[in-house]
Specification:
Blueprint: H1 19-28, E1 44-49, H2 64-69, E2 77-79, E3 85-87, E4 90-97, E5 100-105, H3 119-131, E6 144-149, E7 152-157, H4 164-167, E8 197-203, E9 207-212, E10 225-230, H5 234-243, E11 248-249, H6 254-257, E12 265-278, H7 288-297, H8 300-306, E13 313-314, H9 324-329, E14 345-352, H10 357-370, E15 374-381, H11 387-391, E16 397-403, H12 411-419, H13 433-444, H14 449-465, E17 468-480
Parallel strand pairs: 1-10, 1-11, 14-15, 14-16
Antiparallel strand pairs: 2-3, 4-5, 5-7, 6-7, 8-9, 9-10, 11-17, 12-16, 12-17, 13-17
Helix pairs in contact: 1-5, 12-13, 12-14, 13-14
Length: about 500
């Protein structure tokens, strides 16, 4: 990968620093990307991001979401607020039969390397994703093929799949130039995307540089480029916003948000729910009445106010305010009746340390459960060392921060994974015929109002079992300097810097 050009402004590279060190470092780099008058120094945007690349910015990995947030790699379709597919590199599409879809590729699109977008190259990008090892998450369990036919890409699935357009919105299925794909299977997004910003350099896990692409097919970028720094330490990211070192800061920690100028902090509900999963197969929570007692014992407001400092939303269901249609369409929920907990009923409560708030949530949940008769033993580890035990049913209860719309933007996939008899992420060990029937009906429905209504019926079926107790919905906390305009505040965290984003007055 090429070296970083001299116009980049390198700053806080530290992966883990103390508060004092973060403040000291931020003072050393206080000039940032703005001058004394608040104007962007050279029309560029300085961006501080949470996680460095894990796979060399390969679009076939979770790094694809960075490429999407930088508006450098694009997909055939994008999603609107309701999760419906909208045109992007494809102008329209139609379902030919229950397994075949035809997408018309947009004309007049130029890749950053100067080659033209064609249906052949779009199909080749999709094929590369299907042949990758491991495959992109969006293709788990999906047998998909893509071939060019004139100006169209014909996509075929092994079984009927009403969500093909939504799947193709995943950043992991971005369409790149032929030059991106090496013979050894590696994929480089440097100079090979189609977006308004061209990725021109990557500095390992420290940062990246993007310049405006003047031949962009859509609205040209207002900013001349983006300078990205990866700053895993939350205190350092907050310091960058406080000192003006960064124009836009991703994922400001709850603990730091209250220390910043409120005018610079923006909160957006995200489709992520903090849920207490209860083991329905063995132990005390095999009894629905004991599950009901646990649910009744939880004081969600205390958790939100104490741990999240009010910067979260109390859960009314599995699906939160990031999906506005959920609250609008949800009826009254039937929850399991609460029984009496025999004194001293022993349970194990697990969670993980990777999300800083979860161990604190576990302390409050333990106190609330013990108040109604449970004796609670906690087991808190790093996620990598606890996931296998959680999936094997080793815990009576487990606290998880879980994304409720996965890559397709559809909550049915999440509920099927977590609560169906054959679900691959079934921490509750739930196997309920009514739940499976509701999930199967939702999965078979086409995208749109009918599918959303059936998804809410499936949610109600899950909650009626008491297998999951949704506690709160998390928020994206995003920092923006006063002079920043047009930064996207995206609940799905797919978009951040767009053609319209500028820094400075």
């Amino acid at each position: 990968m090429s070296a970083v050009p001299t116009h980049r402004r390198p700053w806080l590279r530290t992966g883990a620093v103390t508060t004092a060190a973060a403040l000291l470092l931020s003072g050393c780099f206080s000039s940032g990307s703005t001058d004394a008058g608040g104007e962007a120094a050279d029309g560029r945007i300085s961006l501080a991001m949470l996680q460095p690349p894990r796979s060399g910015l390969s679009p076939l990995s979770d790094d694809a979401f960075k490429l999407s947030r930088w508006s450098t790699a694009e997909t055939l379709v994008v999603l609107d607020a309701d999760g419906e597919a909208q045109p992007a590199l494809a102008t329209d599409w139609a379902q030919v039969d229950d397994r075949t879809w035809r997408f018309t590729v947009r004309s007049g699109v130029t890749f950053h390397d100067g080659t033209e977008l064609t249906a052949e190259q779009a199909a080749a990008s999709l094929t590369a994703a299907t042949e990758a090892a491991p495959q992109p998450r969006i293709l788990d369990g999906v047998d998909l093929t893509a071939v060019a036919d004139g100006d169209d890409v014909v996509v075929t699935t092994g079984t009927p799949d009403p969500l093909v357009p939504q799947r193709l919105s995943s950043p992991q299925l971005a369409v790149l130039a032929a030059s991106a794909y090496a013979a050894d299977g590696t994929v480089s997004p440097v100079g090979t995307g189609t977006g308004p910003f061209e990725l021109v350099a990557v500095d390992g896990t420290s940062g990246a540089t993007l310049d405006r692409f003047d031949d962009y097919w859509g609205q040209p970028a207002s900013a001349s480029g983006i300078d990205v720094d990866f700053v895993p330490d939350g205190t350092a990211r907050a310091a960058a916003l406080r000192t003006g070192t960064a124009d836009v800061v991703e994922a400001v920690p709850v603990s730091q948000a209250g220390l910043l100028d409120p005018e610079l902090v923006h909160e957006v509900p995200m489709p992520r729910t903090n849920t207490l999963y209860l083991n329905t197969a063995s132990g005390p929570f095999a009894d629905p009445a004991i599950r009901g007692a646990a649910q009744a014992a939880l004081d969600r407001a205390t958790v939100v106010d104490t741990v999240y400092e009010g910067r979260a939303d109390i859960a009314e269901g599995l699906l939160g305010p990031a999906l506005p249609w959920a609250a609008e369409g949800r009826g009254e929920l039937a929850l399991p009746a609460a029984g009496t907990v025999p004194a001293g009923t022993a349970i194990t409560l697990g969670t993980f340390t990777d999300r800083a708030e979860l161990p604190e949530v576990a302390v409050l949940v333990q106190q609330q459960l013990e108040a109604v008769g449970f004796t609670v033993t906690q087991d808190v580890r790093e996620y990598a060392f606890i996931e296998a035990d959680a999936l094997a049913g080793a815990f009576d209860a487990f606290i998880l921060s879980r994304a409720t719309v996965l890559d397709s933007g559809d909550p049915v996939a999440y509920m099927t994974s977590d609560f169906s008899c054959e679900g691959s992420f079934n921490i509750s060990q739930l196997c309920d015929p009514a739940v499976d029937a509701a999930l199967e009906a939702a999965a078979a429905a086409p995208a749109g109002p009918q599918r959303r209504a059936l998804a809410l019926e499936a949610e109600a079926a899950v909650l009626a079992t008491g297998a999951a107790v949704p506690m709160l919905h998390e928020r994206v906390i995003q920092g923006e300097q006063a002079g920043v305009s047009g930064a996207a505040r995206d609940p799905r965290e797919r978009v951040l810097i767009t053609s319209e984003t500028t820094a400075g007055d």
